[in-house]
Write a structure and sequence with these properties.
There is one protein chain. The chain is mainly alpha-helical and 96 residues long. The protein has a domain of 55 residues. Helices cover 33% and strands 0% of the residues. The protein is built from 4 helices and no strands. The radius of gyration is 18 Å and the shape is elongated.
Length: 96
């Protein structure tokens, strides 16, 4: 379809951060693509502030491929029963 060779390379490790870091270092000529996900582009930047890449600076979204549902679950004995409850609990017990 593209009339050129395509190589798919799986760079596993650190929940996608290794692959994102590799792609961020490549030339911005459109020949290297990353199938990114929440781990490398939302969770890692918030948990690891010293990443070698910036999601906003180093990547441009092309297309949404799919949506993965997320679940927020807790022990039934937990006092928080809603997201609002969890936020209030966390604010009331910072660092806990």
């Amino acid at each position: 379809m593209w009339n050129q060779q395509v190589i798919v390379e799986n760079k596993a490790g650190v929940a996608g951060v290794l692959a994102a870091d590799y792609v961020a270092q490549q030339a911005s000529d459109g020949t290297t693509l990353l199938m990114a996900h929440i781990n490398s582009h939302a969770l890692a930047p918030s948990l690891q502030p010293k990443l070698n890449y910036s999601v906003e600076r180093d990547f441009v979204p092309i297309v949404l491929v799919g949506v993965t549902p997320n679940l927020l679950i807790a022990n039934p004995k937990e006092e928080a029963k809603t997201v609002k409850d969890i936020v209030a609990l966390c604010k009331g017990k910072p660092g806990g």
